[in-house]
Specification:
The chain contains seven helices and five strands. Helix 2 crosses helix 5. It has helices at 24-32, 87-94, 104-117, 123-129, 140-151, 173-176, 180-189, and strands at 2-9, 12-19, 50-53, 56-59, 72-74. The protein is an alpha+beta fold. Helix content is 32%, strand content 13%. It folds into two domains: 2-78, Beta-grasp domain (Ubiquitin-like (UB roll), Roll), CATH 3.10.20.30; 87-190, DNA polymerase, domain 1, CATH 1.10.150.120. A hairpin with a 2-residue loop joins strand 1 and strand 2. Bound molecules: FE2/S2 (inorganic) cluster (2 copies). One FE2/S2 (inorganic) cluster (FES) is lined by residues 39-42, 44-49, 59, 61.
């Protein structure tokens, strides 16, 4: 039996009729159409599906949508304001904090939840906090560097996406073709793909 619920996602109201066992991840991606939140393991292990609910980072693959009635949900799509990236989004681009980008929205949401609570964490505190977010591409140092760049105010004030500083020579132009930079930027904002389903996570 379906239930009528209201979700507040990135400040916008969404009235939905959902089965009681509908996951928040499914509601976000398939019912609301916000595909920036990614599905990795589906069992609460990888952190790819991380979103922020009432200030707390949670795995949306383990959260029932009906349990979020009336709560404030933040997803990666809500971070950029007025065409300007959130400092964490900028840092991940500037410092090369992602490779394939699948884990990246979850990494950024987890980092945001930390910095909202503690804007000046130590490196160890960031490592500890982010330990629930796995990266299959294993770019952990760059992820840490990206978060610490925000903590230490080391992101460029005049950053322009199409002129990245030379911290990632050869990537992603080489890996993704000439429009690789644009594809990578979109992965931080909102995937154009309806869903990405890894075949294995061994
Ligand atoms: S998809 Fe939710 S924790 Fe992996
Ligand atoms: S960038 Fe590929 S899984 Fe993290």
């Amino acid at each position: 039996m379906k239930k009528q619920i209201r979700l507040f996602v990135n400040g916008e109201e969404h009235d939905l009729q959902l089965e009681a066992n509908r996951l928040l991840l499914q509601a976000l991606r398939d019912d609301i159409g916000l595909t920036g939140t990614k599905e990795g393991c589906s069992i609460g292990v990888c952190g790819a599906c991380s979103v922020i609910i009432d200030g707390r980072v949670v795995s949306s693959c383990l959260t029932l949508a009906v349990a979020c009635q009336g709560k404030q949900i933040e997803t990666i799509e809500g971070l950029a304001k007025d065409g300007k990236l959130h400092p964490l989004q900028q840092a991940f681009i500037e410092y090369g904090g992602f490779q394939c980008g699948i884990c990246t929205p979850g990494q950024i949401m987890a980092a945001k939840a930390l910095l909202d609570e503690n804007p000046k964490p130590t490196e160890d505190e960031v490592k500890e906090w982010m330990s629930g977010n796995l990266c299959r591409c294993t770019g952990y140092y760059k992820i840490l560097e990206s978060v610490m760049a925000v903590v230490n105010n080391k992101i460029s004030p005049d950053f322009q996406f199409r002129k990245p500083v030379g911290v990632w020579p050869g990537f992603p132009l080489k890996a993704c073709g000439n429009d690789g930079l644009e594809k990578s930027r979109k992965s931080l904002l909102r995937s154009e793909l309806p869903r990405i389903e890894p075949k294995t996570l061994d």
